[in-house]
Amino acid sequence: MNVSGAQGWKKLAMGFASHAGFLAVLLATWEWAARMGLLDPTFFGNPAGIISFLWANFVLGIQLWIELGWSVMSTLIAFISGSLAAVLTGLIFVIFPRLERFLDPYFSALNALPRIALAPLFILWFGLGIGSKIAMGFTLTFFIVLSSTVAGMRGINQDHIVLTDTLGASPRQKFFLVTLPGAIPVIFSGLRLGLIYALLGVIAGEILAAEHGLGQQLAYLASTFNMNGVMALLVVLAWLGMAATSGMTRLEHHLLRWQ
Amino acid sequence: MRPMDLPLTANVVAQQAAIEIKDLTLSFTAGTPTIDRVSLTVPHGQFLSIVGPSGCGKTTMLNLLAGLIHVPHSGTVRIQGREPRLGDHGIAYMLARDSLLPWRTTLENAAYGMEVRGVAAEQRRERARDLLVRVGLGGFEKSYPKQLSHGMRQRCALARTFALDSPILLMDEPFGALDAQTKLQLEELLVDLWQEERRTVVFITHDLGEAIAISDRVVVMGARPGRIVTDVEIPIKRPRSVRELQKDHVYHELYAHIWEMLEQGYKK
């Protein structure tokens, strides 16, 4: 979207001011209710406490930055390895449709399984470190990206294939010049979702059992009734998810500017 | 391209036709053949149009020449003395829809055929740029297909086709989806491009007027079974202008004449 001219800037400033006003009213009401004893800070925390927690742990100290780093690293490894494996598997499925038909019931069953149920197994197999978190994120990302890869490659415009065949393209040329670029828009919608789900898998794994990560911190703070800390971490996680989504959107706009 | 081959090729070329179809009979299902005993010889450098109603087998014949379909048939089909083969570099094929790759710019699309066929990057860019100017798309090199009108997209597809050095062009109703005005402009452009370097063209259309205006020879086919109803040389001199022809009485007389034969053919 292009915001241009004084009119556009005015609109943007108005939007910003109205959101800032809304948040200020909301936080002030919350703080007031907490101080009046209408909202128990033991269960809900209070804005001043949340802000001072963020200040202490993200500005004065660096401990939470390190935990954030663990979570981000696990998410990225899970996302990249899950996506690569999914695109390769999708490619094999498109080349050998009979293999896909044969494996379909097994993949459907795995995909239908509530993935969190695998967590105890992954913790036993891969330990308390990031290995089990990566495995959780991987299984979620893999199936999402796999289905979009297969759909994208199946949906290639047949005219492009006919033209490329008459030009005498090799299978390799056909893949890199037509099939892959043609499937990218659909693969990308899978990747965008896959990244969010990788984060979900990693945080869920950390909450269950971990040595590091925002999920582990969250579980610890909740169990010690540090509600301001819990609320602060939820804000950080929401911000992290939004940063991931907007990063993907930017990448998509850049790569798919022809759309 | 291949200087060693040239004398030999020239020798062979003088003897054989560009395309030779003998007694071709072909059916997709049991019963009425799609194509029934069709024989057609296209000499080098001829612009031939095949006109006919849908179901007459004209597109099937073109796809057979391009090697796109493999159905059992009797009779022989030869392109430059060889069996039709998919991906033959001697053939440039143009589809009814522009089939531009939406993620490529106009310049990259015009160069696409050459890229697949291994023309060096610098050379193909230069040739694509030159052709884009000739089809009237100079200045649009960096545009993406979605930014172009239908007519412009088909111009780009023409550039991609003519950028190949194939001596035979197979065209499957390339202007069928365009509005009348744009169609006339594109026909004019095709005739201009072809008159500069006369290659063998087989042009499929259901528009008799279009066929007469641009071709050296028009073959009319009838449907069920698909067979040749009439085969007429078009005596209008070259170079011609499609637009000027609309006012030419010879053109209109030819049109009426072939139309009459066509109707007689259908009655039989």
Secondary-structure map:
The complex is a heterodimer of chains A (259) and B (268).
Chain A: H1 5-35, H2 41-44, H3 47-60, H4 63-95, H5 97-112, H6 119-126, H7 130-154, H8 158-166, H9 171-208, H10 214-223, H11 227-255
Chain B: H1 6-15, E1 19-26, E2 35-42, E3 47-51, H2 58-66, E4 73-79, E5 91-94, H3 106-110, H4 112-116, H5 121-134, H6 150-162, E6 168-172, H7 180-196, E7 200-205, H8 208-214, E8 217-222, E9 227-233, H9 242-245, H10 249-267
Parallel strand pairs in B: 3-7, 3-8, 5-6, 6-7
Antiparallel strand pairs in B: 1-2, 1-4, 8-9
Helix pairs in contact in B: 5-6, 6-7, 8-10
Walk me through what this model shows.
Chain A is mainly alpha-helical and 259 residues long. Chain A is built from eleven helices and no strands. Chain A has one domain (45-255): MetI-like (MetI-like fold). The mean pLDDT of chain A is 92. The radius of gyration of chain A is 23 Å and the shape is globular. Chain A has helices at 5-35, 41-44, 47-60, 63-95, 97-112, 119-126, 130-154, 158-166, 171-208, 214-223, 227-255. Chain B is of the alpha/beta class and 268 residues long. Chain B folds into two domains: 17-90 and 166-268, P-loop containing nucleotide triphosphate hydrolases (Rossmann fold, 3-Layer(aba) Sandwich), CATH 3.40.50; 98-165. In chain B, the strands form two sheets. Chain B has a six-stranded mixed sheet, with helices on both faces. In chain B, strands 2-1-4 form a three-stranded antiparallel sheet, covered by helices on one side. In chain B, helix 5 packs across helix 6, helix 6 runs parallel beside helix 7 (180-196) and helix 8 crosses helix 10 (249-267).
Produce a short descriptive summary.
The complex is a heterodimer of chains A (259) and B (268). By secondary structure, chain A is mostly helical.
